[in-house]
Amino acid sequence: MASIDARGPYQYRARIRRKAGDRVVTISKTFTNLTDAQTWAMIQEGKVVGDEYVDRKLVQATTVRQACEWFKDRIAPKDRKTEKRMPKTAHAKNQLSRLRYWCASEFADWSLVSLKPWDLIEWRDELLSEGECAAQTIVHRLNTLSQVYVNFALAQKVELTNPVGEKVRPSLGQGRDRRLSPHPDAGGDDEETRLLKACGGGTRPWLRAAVIISLETAMRQAELAGLTWDRVMLNAEYPHCDLPRTKNERPRRVPLSTRAIAAMRSLLPENVAVLGKRKVFPVETPRAFGHAWRDVVNDENFPNLRWHDLRHEAISRLFERTDLRDNEIMAISGHLRPEMLTRYTHLRADRLGVRLG
User: Fold this and answer.
1) Rounded distance between C-alpha atoms, residue 221 and residue 214, angstroms
2) Torsion angle in degrees (nearest 10) through CA of 27, 30, 36, 38
3) For residues 140 and 124, what is the distance between their CA atoms, to the nearest angstrom?
4) What is the pLDDT of residues 245-294, one digit of tens each?
5) Which residues are catalytic?
6) How many CA atoms lie within 13 A of 15 on its CB side?
7) N or C: which end of the chain has fewer CB within 10 A?
8) Residue 48 pLDDT exceeds 60
9) Contact between 213 and 264 (Cβ < 8 Å)
10) How many Å from the N-terminal Cα to the C-terminal Cα in the chain?
11) Which among 166, 159, 158 is positioned nearest to 120, based on CA atoms?
């Protein structure tokens, strides 16, 4: 309930007392006329929910950096001995990197309530115009910031407007649509054949098998890098790989085709009775695939071809060469939304024509 006291000929003090958790909060403000005092009191009473007063002092005093530091502890607690943050998944590791970005950004010392959508739009447009990062990177950073706002508001039980809206995120455009060419070169080899020949030699003989498995399963680079033999069921009735940790933190079971099984068997080490948690590929990080790839694949022999294009190729082939439904292909690829599956699918008109008859 609001009260207004006349403190002089031109002074009116408006006061409101309400519960905020276990304590009683009193807010007041003095005006030079009664109308302004009444208007202010009505506005403040509008911020009262039932018998609880929404105290905005916390969100006004908390900076973006402080909220991000708070969120870090939720996704990557500190090790007690080393004081280093220990993310449990690749997704958490990426989140941690983005939180560090916001902690060092121009908005780090801004109050949570002072950051508005138009501030982020200006920041977004500047990054895009200068070509500092891709639209997808900006989307990832904004998604992380959005999670900070949502989780902080819920945990602290305060009202907090999230500055990250639909209009703030940049358009991702059409994305990459590079596929392996089916047309033979002068030697009669199509692009996949030439790629496998290039990857079959050198100091990394496992790279050829990795390319085949990627094309057959649509597995992500990080999923291949972390795959261990105890998760590869070659002798099951329906051979498959179990992926307990994926990009979206959801487990997935990936079926293996006859060709993928043969590639997997070619990687089995000799004279090893128990494989256990031994890695399928001799790499420490997902980036090792990129390093090995760039040693044999360049723009001269394979123009504009990237490792991630193999995943696009694999998903497109699942549509072209099988009768699987969209939700079945999503179960294999690990996509959660149909629109993301669409971005990875690039169907050839000639293949569609053959199916039409």
Assistant:
1) 8
2) 50
3) 12
4) 787 778 899 999 999 999 999 998 876 666 788 899 998 888 888 888 98
5) 220, 247, 308, 311, 335, 344
6) 10
7) C
8) no
9) yes
10) 76
11) 166
> Residue 202, SS3?
coil
Whether the CA torsion 47, 48, 50, 52 is positive or negative: it is positive
Helix (H) or strand (E) holding 247: none
Residue with tokens 């908390």: 62
> Cα–Cα–Cα angle for 34, 39, 44, nearest 5°?
125
Tokens of 28: 């007041």
HSE (CB half, 13 Å, CA atoms) of 60? 4
CA distance 30 to 36: 9
What CA–CA distance (Å, rounded) separates 21 from 24?
Answer: 8
pTM of the model: 0.65
User: Whole-angstrom Cα distance, residue 233 to residue 229?
Assistant: 8
Q: Please state the length of the chain.
A: 357
